[in-house]
């Protein structure tokens, strides 16, 4: 079905720039963009539908490329403790932190996990998200990681959003492997990853490279197995300390290295050479009251692509709005609104291995877009959350909620 969308301005985000077309029109056929350009040059055709977008600004659908949307319970109690002076690391050492979410996630049924995650995901969708990445990592054994990944898949079938499922079995050490981190890594490599991949539940493999999680050597063993299975890798790196996980990720041509507050210029050089995207997570930076800023100048200087994501998770970033993250990327990391928007569109798509089909509005790409009733694209990074009037189109179909 050929559809014409007109009376709008478009920030196409091609090559990660606004690349604005004023008084634009777009032709979609089925789920794809067939043509986009100035309205005066729109092809004449027998359109099945013509939509008047009433002067809206159209952008690609937002892409949240790093979330832990599926989890049991929540940790607002720990939030209170931290405000009384207890650190994230201290809470983790006492069996709280990730371990408490692991207990709650293991105790929850698949349907319970689905129901709680669906609410959080709907909140992201109301904010203009059309693609989301969801990680496992609170199950930490085969049955419970499978349960989380199945929920991620089901969310993608039930809601109008494309879901990429990432296996983060190497997120934390499960209690039954206490003091046996190498054995747990071996279990991930020999049992969990091969089984979950064979079941078609895994689009990418992630790990947490940190002194309170897994060492670069342990991460590398996981990466080697991912590579054998033909799965792309990503890494939580340099969030709390500098172990050069981001350079390791680059050596394995990772799609992305994420967090990165403590990365060095050499890490940036390695990432740029490998095309590994830097995913910055201002929600976690803010929520942990981190003071070490990611090295924006080094990232820019070496041409590393920068994505922005919510890191939606119960411990360090209970963030339900990607637009709020855009604002925080600007205010906290001094990114421009254009860089921030590129970070939640084209560069986020690249961080998910979807850069050729998603993330910008160009002929041949998937017709995922949002028509916002705003004055200019910078409004998207300007308002602090809330709801903006808009229409959301996914795969060429209006899915506005
Ligand atoms: N870094 C984070 O910020 C989250 N995971 C990670 O590796 C925190 C997850 C949690 O605290 O539940
Ligand atoms: Fe994370």
Describe this structure in words.
The chain is α/β, with parallel strands linked by helices. It folds into two domains: 2-59 and 360-398, Roll (Urease, subunit C, domain 1), CATH 2.30.40; 62-351, Alpha-Beta Barrel (TIM Barrel). The protein has 15 helices and 15 strands. The chain has helices spanning 76-83, 88-93, 98-107, 110-126, 142-158, 181-198, 216-228, 245-251, 265-274, 282-287, 296-301, 322-333, 337-343, 346-351, 379-382; strands spanning 2-11, 20-29, 32-38, 49-60, 62-64, 129-135, 162-170, 204-209, 234-237, 256-259, 277-280, 306-308, 369-372, 390-394, 397-398. A hairpin with an 8-residue loop joins strand 1 and strand 2. The relative contact order is 0.16. The mean pLDDT is 97. 3-[(4S)-2,5-dioxoimidazolidin-4-yl]propanoic acid binds at residues 97-98, 101, 171, 208, 236, 239, 284, 311, 313-316. Residues 97-98, 101, 171, 208, 236, 239, 284, 311, 313-316 line the site of 3-[(4S)-2,5-dioxoimidazolidin-4-yl]propanoic acid. Keywords: Cytoplasm, Histidine metabolism, Hydrolase, Iron, Metal-binding, Zinc. 4-imidazolone-5-propanoate binds at residues 75, 138, 171, 239, 316. Catalyzes the hydrolytic cleavage of the carbon-nitrogen bond in imidazolone-5-propanoate to yield N-formimidoyl-L-glutamate. It is the third step in the universal histidine degradation pathway. One of its GO terms (biological process) is L-histidine catabolic process to glutamate and formamide.
């Amino acid at each position: 079905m050929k559809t014409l969308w007109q009376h709008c301005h478009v920030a196409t985000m091609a090559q990660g720039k606004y690349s604005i077309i004023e008084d634009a029109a777009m032709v979609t056929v089925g789920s794809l963009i067939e043509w986009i350009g100035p309205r005066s040059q729109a092809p004449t055709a027998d359109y099945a539908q013509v939509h008047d977008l009433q002067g809206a600004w159209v952008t690609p659908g937002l892409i949240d490329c790093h979330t832990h949307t599926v989890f049991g319970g929540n940790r607002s109690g720990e939030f209170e403790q931290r405000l009384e002076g207890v650190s994230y690391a201290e809470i983790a050492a006492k069996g709280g932190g990730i371990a408490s979410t692991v207990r709650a996630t293991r105790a929850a049924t698949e349907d319970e996990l689905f129901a709680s995650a669906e609410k959080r995901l709907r909140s992201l969708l109301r904010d203009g998200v059309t693609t989301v990445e969801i990680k496992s990592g609170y199950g930490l054994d085969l049955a419970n990681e499978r349960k989380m990944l199945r929920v991620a898949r089901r969310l993608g079938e039930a809601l109008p959003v494309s879901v990429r499922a990432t296996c983060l079995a190497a997120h934390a050490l499960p209690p039954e492997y206490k003091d046996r981190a190498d054995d747990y890594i071996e279990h991930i490599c020999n049992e969990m990853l091969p089984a979950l991949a064979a079941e078609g539940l895994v689009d990418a493999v992630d790990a947490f490279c940190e002194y309170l999680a897994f060492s670069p050597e342990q991460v590398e063993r996981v990466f080697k197995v991912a590579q054998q299975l033909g799965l792309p890798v990503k890494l939580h790196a340099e969030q709390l300390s500098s172990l050069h996980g981001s350079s390791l990720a680059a050596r394995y041509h990772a799609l992305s290295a994420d967090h990165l507050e403590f990365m060095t210029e050499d890490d940036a050089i390695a990432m740029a050479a490998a095309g590994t995207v830097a995913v910055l997570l201002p929600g976690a930076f803010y929520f942990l009251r981190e003071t070490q800023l990611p090295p924006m100048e080094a990232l820019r200087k070496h041409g590393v692509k920068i994505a922005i994501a919510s890191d939606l998770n119960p411990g360090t970033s209970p963030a339900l709005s990607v637009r709020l993250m855009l604002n925080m990327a600007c205010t906290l990391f001094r990114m421009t609104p254009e860089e921030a928007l590129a970070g939640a569109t084209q560069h986020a798509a690249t961080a998910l291995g979807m850069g050729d089909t998603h993330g910008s509005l160009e002929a041949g790409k998937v017709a995922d877009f949002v028509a916002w009733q705003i004055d200019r694209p910078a409004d998207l990074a300007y308002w602090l959350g809330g709801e903006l009037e808009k229409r959301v189109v996914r795969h060429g179909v209006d899915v506005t909620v």
